[in-house]
Design brief:
The structure is a homotrimer of 109-residue chains. Chain A is α+β, with helices and mostly antiparallel strands. Helices cover 23% and strands 42% of the residues of chain A. The complex binds nickel (II) ion (3 copies).
């Protein structure tokens, strides 16, 4: 048994949830923050058999691959104040940090 | 030293907290979601000596044992709309998923 | 690779975050509760190389060392009701509980 702990940007969290369910993996989700961008993220706890680690890693990789995206300037306050970034910029989104831990004992009651 | 990670339905969370305190175990609780029912749950982190793993597993089992319960139909919005389930149904509540991990180093400052 | 799980009083959480960033450690933070005082706390997940465990433990110790503090009585409701503790008392604040776990596999996508 292994415990997979995956920290995933909020942007990809729903996609990862859906893909895990599709593949029959059960996950527990915890709201978290941190990393360089201080953006919100989600920490997934996924208990899997040792033989499924590669599968679940594949699901995480395909759901959360880091990629570049154009960020359009917007003024979320709509108050006429100039946005801090007045032109579209390329930002990196997505990505996941994954720790796989050995589980000494597993139980379900 | 072992780290016990227990994911528990919110319904049993307070009972487990109380029983852990009664038995002298200290736990850290994190709000979490997930599992089949998407119901809210609580993730407990409990650091215990290797010799106490069986004890703490017993406390979790007795506090969170899965069981059946009659769910009465209710219309939570009180707006005259038919409830989705118009008759009492048996649902499974409770249950816990528990991972025991080996701790390489433990420290308290 | 090691996963350091540190449970830290909210009071010290920002200081620990800042010091970790200063030292180049990336952390994921989860809101948590529990321990004797039921006070809010923060659970940090910090992935580090085996050779950095001592360093990160030092950062946690210096940021979160338990210490005594005078707690002044205050009536937070401002409603004329007597505070429960009508004179300054010494309370222990700070402190951290830290678990270091071995990581079998680490990945970043
Ligand atoms: Ni898809
Ligand atoms: Ni009881
Ligand atoms: Ni400082």
């Amino acid at each position: 048994m292994r415990l997979v702990i995956a920290v995933v940007q909020d942007q990809d969290s729903q996609k990862l949830s859906d893909h895990l369910v599709e593949r029959g993996f059960r996950a527990t989700k915890l709201a978290s923050t941190g990393g360089f961008l201080k953006a919100g993220n989600t920490t997934f706890l996924i208990g899997v058999d040792q033989t499924q680690v590669e599968d679940v890693m594949g699901v995480i990789r395909e759901s959360c691959q880091a990629r570049e995206q154009m960020l359009n300037p917007m003024n979320p306050l709509g108050n006429g104040v100039e946005p801090m970034v007045p032109y579209p910029v390329k930002v990196q989104v997505g990505g996941a940090t994954v720790f796989v831990l050995d589980v000494e004992t597993f139980a379900h009651f």
